[in-house]
Amino acid sequence: MARILIVYSTTDGHTRKICERLRAVIERQAHEVRLAPVAEVADADLEPCDKIVVGASIRYGRHRPAVMEFMQRNAALLNRKPGAFFSVNVVARKPEKNEPHTNPYVRKLLGGLSWRPREVAVFAGKLDYPRYGFLDRMIIRFIMLLTGGPTDPETVVEFTDWGKVEAFGEVIARM
Ligand SMILES: Cc1cc2nc3c(=O)[nH]c(=O)nc-3n(C[C@H](O)[C@H](O)[C@H](O)COP(=O)(O)O)c2cc1C
């Protein structure tokens, strides 16, 4: 049995929901899983873990600074353990941008990171216009207009391929 820590960075909760699905899959393989938002993880929590997973969503073109700092600060330790990273963004709803080597955010992240996670994934996220503030809703709708996505302000849609999430959970359980 391995002790697996899943550290996540979320703004609207969708990355957390993906983490919960990963946990369900991994626990079926009799591993112990802890989920923790990046703000609640002390660097000292990492050493006792056998494997570490980091998941983060994109907001306005970037993973949040706190999760970037976490990965850079702990890169040496992370590189000593089996590790996985996944990104959540809506660009990944497009088939030609939903793999680590084709998704612009993941490519950029891996290019600038000292951590070399053994496994990397990218998942399409969720749009929830009614939940967003006025300005965010207008900006995201405009981006969707430019990129062929939904613009109806009532739209709530999960683009996430849950089968792909579950398959990644199996990979983490085995790595
Ligand atoms: C204000 C805002 C900005 C966003 N910016 C981007 C972006 O630049 N690129 C992208 O692909 N997705 C973008 N998204 C989509 C999010 O990545 C997507 O909604 C994801 O599911 C959010 O996950 P979270 O709830 O864990 O934060 C944005 C969403 C919001 C609300």
* Annotation field: number of helices: 6
Largest sheet, in brief, is: 6 strands, mixed
Kindly state the mean pLDDT as a whole number? 97
Q: What is the number of strand segments? A: 8
The hetero compounds bound to this protein are: flavin mononucleotide
Radius of gyration: 16 Å
Give the proportion of residues in helices. 25-40%
What is the 3D shape?
Answer: globular
Unreliable spans are: none
Q: Per DSSP, what share of the residues sits in E-state strands of 2 or more residues?
A: 15-25%
Describe this entry's structure for a reader.
Helices cover 37% and strands 25% of the residues. By secondary structure, it is of the alpha/beta class. The two termini are 12 Å apart. The mean pLDDT is 97. The structure holds flavin mononucleotide (FMN). The site of flavin mononucleotide has 21 residues, from helix 1, strand 3, strand 5, strand 7 and helix 5.
Write the layout of secondary structure elements.
Elements: E1 3-9, H1 14-28, E2 32-37, E3 51-59, E4 62-63, H2 65-73, H3 75-79, E5 83-89, H4 104-111, E6 119-124, E7 126-128, H5 134-147, E8 156-158, H6 162-174
Parallel strand pairs: 1-2, 1-3, 3-5, 5-6
Antiparallel strand pairs: 3-4, 7-8
Bound molecules: flavin mononucleotide.
Flavin mononucleotide binds next to helix 1, strand 3, strand 5, strand 7 and helix 5.
